[in-house]
Amino acid sequence: MSFLDISLEEKQKALAELRDVKQLFADRGWFAGTSGNLSIRVGDFTPEQFHFAITASGKDKSMQTPEDFLFVDQQGKPAETTRLKPSAETLIHCEIYRLTGCGAIFHVHTVFNNLISEYFWDRKSVPVDGVELIKAFNIWDEEAHIDIPIVSNYADIPRIVPEVTSAFNPQIPGIILRKHGIYAWGANAFEAKRHLEAFEFIFEYVYRWELLKRGG
Ligand SMILES: [Zn+2]
């Protein structure tokens, strides 16, 4: 499906949803220093061809402007004429869409996702035991154990992509970049938001629990 075959209505719906999520997360302080990026996929999906709307690079995400988003293809290249530049991290969105065919990906930098990624860097994953919110990932076992993958944070984004590919676990809708932030995804914006909120709750919980165990 070419970009021109995707209806205007679907594109506008994606932009409206991105605007709402952007405002909500900005109000929570989740875009410190213009960090973070959000995307929603539009049109049909095959691993070889897809399109998505993504936040433009370097914008203040607490503001709403006509230059906040652009559409890109599966290689992260703009799908139509624009002066806007997709975030450098768009390539990570491309790889997550290619691997999952998901509908939305949200990426934020928070103090807790940074702390937890460094704390558990040696084991390359955050272990989580029996926290109720694991159910947000559709994992319903009592006392479920999950490991949330952590990958390297290189300045050269294309170097991160193969680590995302190998750390990807279809059961866990998120990957953490070391001392950087989390990428969380879902079938649509609603689910991606639910997953992101569950991850952030879990990171704070695990971090505080580790402190308690140390008597801190
Ligand atoms: Zn980032």
UniProtKB/TrEMBL annotation:
Instruction: Write the protein's name.
Output: Methylthioribulose-1-phosphate dehydratase
| Keyword annotations from UniProtKB, A to Z | Amino-acid biosynthesis, Lyase, Metal-binding, Methionine biosynthesis, Zinc
Q: Which reaction does it catalyse?
A: 5-(methylsulfanyl)-D-ribulose 1-phosphate = 5-methylsulfanyl-2,3-dioxopentyl phosphate + H2O
Pathway participation: Amino-acid biosynthesis; L-methionine biosynthesis via salvage pathway; L-methionine from S-methyl-5-thio-alpha-D-ribose 1-phosphate: step 2/6
What cofactor is needed? Zn(2+)
Query: Into which EC class is this enzyme placed?
Result: lyase
- List the Gene3D superfamilies: Class II aldolase/adducin N-terminal domain
Question: Recorded E.C. number(s)?
Answer: 4.2.1.109
Q: Which PANTHER family did the record assign?
A: METHYLTHIORIBULOSE-1-PHOSPHATE DEHYDRATASE (PTHR10640)
Which terms in the GO cellular component ontology are assigned?
Answer: cytoplasm
Q: Which SUPFAM superfamilies match?
A: AraD/HMP-PK domain-like
Gene Ontology BP terms: L-methionine salvage from methylthioadenosine
Q: Tell me the SMART domains matching this sequence.
A: Aldolase_II
Q: What does this protein do?
A: Catalyzes the dehydration of methylthioribulose-1-phosphate (MTRu-1-P) into 2,3-diketo-5-methylthiopentyl-1-phosphate (DK-MTP-1-P).
Q: How, per the record, is the cofactor bound?
A: Binds 1 zinc ion per subunit.
Any Pfam family matching the protein: Aldolase_II
Query: In the record, what terms sit under GO molecular function?
Result: methylthioribulose 1-phosphate dehydratase activity; zinc ion binding
Identify the residues that the record assigns to the Class II aldolase/adducin N-terminal domain, covering every copy.
16-207
Binding of Zn(2+): at which residues?
107, 109
Give the family per the record: Belongs to the aldolase class II family. MtnB subfamily.
